[in-house]
Amino acid sequence: xxxxxxxxxxxxxxxxASGVASFFGGEEAIxxxxxxxxxxxRRWLGFHNSPGSYTIAKHFxxxxxxxxxxxxxxxxxxxxxxxxxLDGQPGPRYVASLSxxxxxxxxxxxxxxxxxxxxxxxxxxxxxRTTQGTVTLLELxxxxxxxxxxxxxxxHELFAFIPIIASLAACIMCAVVADWYCCSxxxxxxxxNGLATIMIGSGxxxxxxxxxxxxxxxxxxGLLIGDNTVVVVKGEEKDVNIIxxxxxxxxxYRAAGNREIGQSxxxxxxxxxxxxxxxxQGTLFGQTMFxxxxxxxxxxxxxxxxxxxYKIQADILFxxxxxxxxxxxxxxxxxxxxxxxxxxxxxxxxxVGVDPNEILLEFIPNQTVxxxxxxxxxxxxxxxxxxxxxxxxxxxxxxxxxxxxxxINLLDSLLRDAxxxxxxxxxxxxxxIQNQTFSYTTLLAT
Length: 446
Hints:
This protein has about 450 residues and is of the alpha+beta class. It has 19 helices and 9 strands. The chain has helices spanning about 15-25, 25-35, 55-60, 65-70, 80-85, 105-115, 160-175, 180-200, 235-245, 255-280, 285-305, 310-320, 335-345, 355-365, 370-385, 395-400, 405-430, 430-435, 440-445, and strands at about 95, 100-105, 120-125, 135-140, 205-210, 220-225, 230-235, 245-250, 325-330. The relative contact order is 0.17. Mean pLDDT is about 85; it is low at about 430-445.
């Protein structure tokens, strides 16, 4: 017998149970479930009546890699890190300045570029603005290798208590009015979603990389080249490997992991069937409580989805790379940006073996007379002890021979761009300019 009279008991309105069960989005629930490895503690805070149980079951059930579970949850058996969105993004191109290695980076290279977009920019004054872009100097310290992933508690975990309390309150209200059908379905949703979150979140999240470089390998200094952004990475080969060759890995203990994920997905499927069968038997008040609990959980899932998962992953990566030094510069043209990158690579104790011409050709491969003259003058200027007079970047009478007026004007503009880069570099790196001597033959020495 109900403790209270059932509200809305005289109403002839009935909720469409099939619509209730499938209306609220499963995509948000999947995205929220996939982020449990990015925030410590989220694994234990899934006890609420979440929508999209059928969609979650079909998506994560594919992780249970065995003949039985493959038959029940059909689809491609992707690696767990792909399913959870922890890998799979193609990264920028990497060009090593010493070993001449050229390769495509993966997910961690992509995260590095994404992380740098949020950095404060130091403006380098250039005499003209064409295509603005950024150059970032990222200096890595020697890192003791371990594959653990740093995670911290965040304020977002506390918001999980809102859908938990709302679901429990809805369940209790249904029990108070003796609507046991809706009460049992809400309770089933709380339990199945909580157990699924615990089981699906039981994997081991780590960062794998090539932790040892080959004997005699040079430093890992090089360039990450993105769209209108370049990252000059400096560090030992094993440390740079984290960005260029590393990846996030998610592993489940094979037998137990397959069984637990399969069982939790089966529970979610059972719960979705229970919704279709029992909710129509409940009262309008109970159905309203059921929809309300789904609504609060859906709002929570949507909030979790709004958090930028790649930004969170990038923050995790850069915590792993600490201590580091990073500065981002903004320049107004591709030419000045190219020269500035070359200057950053060719200064400091690790410059020996860097070929400035190769760096310049990497960004500006034009083989016309004007561009060849420009590259030659830039390299000459770099070999002149970083002279502040910038005499090699002047356009003299001899340079004008054989050039028509349009070529002379172009060369003059390009040399002005180079001057802007040299002047900006001398302003931000005065000790290196005063104390370092870089001859072109020394730069090419191995």
